[in-house]
Design a protein that fits this description.
Blueprint (H helix, E strand, L loop, with lengths): L2 E6 L7 H15 L3 E6 L14 H4 L7 H7 L6 E7 L7 H13 L8 E8 L4 H13 L4 E2 L7 E3 L3 H5 L2 H26 L18
Parallel strand pairs: 1-2, 1-3, 3-4, 4-5, 4-6
Helix pairs in contact: 1-7, 3-4, 4-5
Length: 207
């Protein structure tokens, strides 16, 4: 029915971010969606060097999980990126990963679903949401929300498990993602075609 990547950008594989994403995963699977985990936290993630080689080869010069996902992107219907909040920002490895993934696959990501999920001890989520969502918005992806901002609170997984509103927000987010994916597939079956865009215009502020 639909396949979604759950990207865990935390250095702790089964910490607070995982706890939030796992709650969302259960809601997705209950709606017939398939999920796949990508854990970044314990591996160095090379930042984009703006070499632009990917624009001619279709792959990054750093052959890692970015290229693995790029090769399989046509089988993936959406991306859910999860991160702890550090000084009002997502984790550095996650941002580096998304920078390269989105640059290589900007057009292939068009109209796929996306969501950001954040784990906060207390605050700082607004800036972190903005950083993650900008990656998705620039690729014409549809960002999915819930009945509250897609975040949980806690310093440890046990504390996140004790955040009933946060966990409910994750479940509703999963339901919304599944509903939108089913709606997209129903539209395709009904013959609704994707938009045909005009040729891209690039301008600089200084001409």
């Amino acid at each position: 029915m639909g396949k979604f990547l759950l990207i865990n950008g935390s250095p702790n594989e089964h910490g607070c971010t995982y706890t939030a994403l796992h709650e969302l995963e259960k809601a997705l699977q209950a709606e017939g969606m398939e999920t796949e985990w990508v854990f970044l936290g314990n591996e160095p993630q090379h930042g984009c060097t703006a070499c632009m080689t990917c624009q001619s080869t279709g792959e990054c010069i750093f052959d890692d999980k970015v290229n693995d996902i790029t090769r399989r992107l046509d089988t993936i219907d959406g991306i859910i990126a999860g991160s702890p909040v550090y000084y009002g920002c997502p984790s550095g490895p996650l941002l580096s990963f998304l920078d390269r993934l989105c640059l290589i696959n900007e057009y292939r990501l068009y109209r796929k679903l996306a969501a950001s999920v954040l784990s906060c001890r207390r605050g700082g989520a607004s800036g972190a949401f903005m950083a993650l969502n900008q990656c998705f918005l620039n690729c014409s992806m549809t960002i999915v929300g819930s009945e509250y901002w897609n975040q949980v609170h806690g310093m440890a997984p046990e504390e996140v498990a004790g955040d009933p509103e946060g966990l409910q927000t994750m479940r509703v987010l999963g339901q919304n993602i599944a509903w939108l994916q089913k709606s997209i597939e129903a539209g395709r079956s009904a013959g609704i075609e994707a938009p045909v865009y005009e040729k891209r215009i690039y301008t600089n502020f200084v001409r």
